TrEMBL record:
It comes from the Bacteria. It comes from Methylobacterium variabile. This is Uncharacterized protein.
Length: 90
């Protein structure tokens, strides 16, 4: 049975949410296991944030780009908060 527009929107929102949560979880595991430095991951996320902000300025889906930048900022903050905790455990 085909999905309606509202159902597709919810499906895409759920897929995006699941993907972001999975990536955040994997990043946190990598930091906690000291496989990658938190600052390196934060730098990578900040590069994507800058790109999304530039896309918004250029008019490429500006509302979506701004929302993505906000979500990515939350992700970077989560990684930053996890860094000291991981170091304190050892």
């Amino acid at each position: 049975m085909p999905m309606g527009e509202g159902e597709m929107d919810r499906f895409h929102a759920a897929a995006g949410q699941a993907a972001l949560m999975l990536v955040e979880s994997l990043m946190l595991v990598l930091v906690e296991r000291r496989m990658i430095d938190a600052d390196e991951l934060i730098g990578a996320v900040e590069t994507v944030i800058d790109t999304k902000r530039q896309l918004a300025e250029y008019g490429h889906e500006p509302e979506v780009a701004r929302l993505a930048a906000t979500l990515l900022t939350t992700l970077a903050n989560s990684i930053a908060a996890a860094g000291p905790k991981a170091a304190a455990r050892d």
